[in-house]
């Protein structure tokens, strides 16, 4: 039961990162779109699905609440200010989808909120991952740090890194979803963003070595984990090939693979800890009665159905955005 | 946590949840209304239903968007500001809210995309299916929220572990108790009534200014007609809701009734100014005994508990539940009069000449929102000083290490962001309502289908001259 919910949480978070990752990425790239046509094109590429994508964040939060309440209480309160920033950013970015077409004078404001909100949400998510890797002070399962404990050079670096990563996802999505100038923009950006991500990973690794972070010891203990970065490296090579061949369909799955490899690497380095390295998955789990109540309904029935209709909705909107149909 | 951080956290929760509830109160009903219009349009093929559907879909889009973004905040606040509550009641509240996001949030969010952008891409039956799924999603969402909140009002089916954690022992009791199944219909009816009055008020507005005549009549007929049936039903469920408070929450009913001394038989206080310092009421207007006893427990001699019989440490603030309850009931009675009166005038063909009544219906649009909000104020403030009634005090539920500057910052940020998006959302909805229905182009089946809520002519900077919507604006 505990394993099921830990896996469900990992799957949900992973889907969130991949799905909202690309629409946050498109939101960032929206800032450098050359003209209004390109901007509409970009919004059109994500408008039908962004809401569903963001839902995976809520699903992850509630799985955490239901299955691992101590961790939910610990992490959310420890990251009070960054989460506030992220929520405000997600709000401003979410309303922009509707509001930018309704406004007379404020379109620039909503567009700025859209771009800024996308950057900010991505950055904060990266910062929290960075702070987790660096370890939070925890005593008796309760957070023992201050309001700004999460704020370190390493966490800021991770924030930057995730922005680059989401932008990479976004660019790959645009290659597959759009035509003409926006697609070209995507292809131009992909190699540069990939380079940025690799530089970030190198810097983060060097920093971790210098600080002698405990995460590194896990890698020495578990050399089989090195398969995962190798998968990521292979996906990078594949991506460069796809860009050279101007293949529309390949970039997104390949970038998704890079993300999956990175995500799995992190998860494997943390296990069996949920909050590294203080609370294990087992310690965090809710009582059996809670886990099985969720399992027999939400777990076996609703989660698969949710996955199915997410696929259905993506199928409905498959293919390129039609340039002619995106005007209001 | 220091006292001011606790108070600020309470204000923040009250503010964000009040802001949030406005939109579900509207969209739960609106989703059902849209599904109904879509079904009617498919069956009758009368264009008026299609036109109404297109029109209300645009408004739904904005309200739904605001509901979603303000709802995401709620999913986090239990952990950020109320971490002790989350830690201790997580095994119960977590799965309930988990079910909400699994069964409702994901469903409505995904099919909302189809509703807004998929009309030309899916067959008509699937489009109706998407409408129904959004409607189902919004209703399921209310269900789980009400199960969760009802457990906080009437905790049941749990055992308390030595470390203070609430462990569920009987989910059946948590899901299927009399409190849930009275409060859930009460909330859904509130949403439907709120939407009915918004629809009817829009119809009355157009009737007053003489535009969109067919749609105006249809909206008044459907809005008021539904309200004429639902408002009495709502008053009945409201009474049942009161019954559970009488049975399970003595401190709340004492604050609502506003008697300081226990009485048997008791009168019913219609109006007063309760004075908590002196423990007495000023300016009392009351109905004589035994009306209070009759209302509370249906007998001529029943005891109505007084506030003084509740230990001081366990008393809720009196003023807010006392007045919020009376405002809610007042709105309910006013809506009943309007719905029945309006329908009587409509049925006898006198409504079109009775401009005063059209004005009254037009101005009635906030009544449902006010009643919903004040109803929640009564329920939530009346539950104080408890977060989980009788089990966990609000002061013990908050995040222990949170400081006032942190909460003040978050409250200020939420205040500013919500003010901005609320103001903009209201203006955009107002503009669409003011623009009226007629400019909407042909739809359904035609290739000129709107893929997103249409920009109202002249609204888009790209279309300064007011291009008919649905055609390229640039």
TrEMBL record, chain A:
From the Swiss-Prot or TrEMBL record, state where the protein is found: Cell membrane
Q: What is its main location?
A: membrane
- State the annotated membrane topology for this chain: Multi-pass membrane protein
Keyword hit for Iron: no
Q: What is this protein called?
A: Cytochrome d ubiquinol oxidase subunit II
Pfam families reported for this sequence: Cyt_bd_oxida_II
Keyword Endoplasmic reticulum among record annotations = no
The portions of this protein that span the membrane are: 6-33, 54-73, 79-97, 109-133, 153-173, 193-213, 225-243, 250-273, 293-317
| Keywords, in A-Z order | Cell membrane, Membrane, Transmembrane, Transmembrane helix
Q: Which domain of life is it from?
A: Bacteria
**What InterPro entries would the database entry show?**
Cyt-d_oxidase_su2
Record-stated family: Belongs to the cytochrome ubiquinol oxidase subunit 2 family.
UniProtKB/TrEMBL annotation, chain B:
List membrane-spanning regions.
12-34, 55-76, 96-118, 125-147, 189-208, 220-240, 323-347, 359-379, 411-430
Q: What keywords would UniProt list here? A: Cell membrane, Electron transport, Heme, Iron, Membrane, Metal-binding, Transmembrane, Transmembrane helix, Transport
Q: Where is this region: Disordered?
A: 445-474
Entry-linked InterPro entries: Cyt-d_ubiquinol_oxidase_su_1 (IPR002585)
Membrane topology classification: Multi-pass membrane protein
Subcellular location(s): the record lists:
Cell inner membrane; Cell membrane
| UniProt superkingdom | Bacteria
User: What Pfam families would the database entry show?
Assistant: Cyt_bd_oxida_I (PF01654)
What family does the Swiss-Prot or TrEMBL record give for this protein? Belongs to the cytochrome ubiquinol oxidase subunit 1 family.
Listed PANTHER family? CYTOCHROME BD MENAQUINOL OXIDASE SUBUNIT I-RELATED, CYTOCHROME D UBIQUINOL OXIDASE
Its protein name is Cytochrome ubiquinol oxidase subunit I
